[in-house]
Design brief:
Layout lengths: L7 E5 L2 H12 L2 E6 L2 E5 L5 E6 L18 E4 L3 H10 L9 E3 L2 E7 L5 E6 L6
Parallel strand pairs: 1-4, 5-8
Antiparallel strand pairs: 2-3, 3-4, 6-7, 7-8
């Protein structure tokens, strides 16, 4: 019956601009649009829907406040991905670190939403 998440929506004051950020910075592609709604798809098939927001951007929440706090971006070469984003001027919230054999770093997307890169030593079961 239930198959899992089909996409996650992010409300943005400028959906087209944020969708293009995911294309330019993380290698997603815009796979579907209608009106002012944009679906972006990652190389692994994960999708985000970028929708219009009502009003300006909210202050970026603390990473541990209740609710959805980050989207994790998987990659196969952590150091290369980190350096590429650093060269593009991405705002990082932490320095890269290791946790249980995994490489992690937190950063913001074009609207200030919290993302993090993760390269796992072993995939989760």
């Amino acid at each position: 019956m239930f198959q899992g998440l089909e996409h996650t929506a992010i409300a943005s004051p400028d959906p087209k601009k944020l969708a293009q950020w995911y294309v330019d910075y993380l290698g997603f592609h815009i796979n579907y649009t209608y009106d002012v709604f944009y679906f972006v798809k990652a190389p692994n098939g994960a999708m985000l829907e970028i929708i219009p927001s009502n009003g300006p951007l909210a202050q970026t929440p603390d990473m541990k406040e209740p609710g959805i706090r980050h989207l994790a971006i998987a990659l196969d070469d952590f150091d290369a991905g980190y350096q590429l984003l650093k060269q593009k001027g991405v705002e990082f919230l932490t320095e890269p670190y290791n946790n249980q054999g995994n490489r992690l770093v937190f950063f913001k997307d074009g609207d200030g939403n919290i993302l993090h890169l993760i390269q796992r030593e072993r995939p989760l079961p």
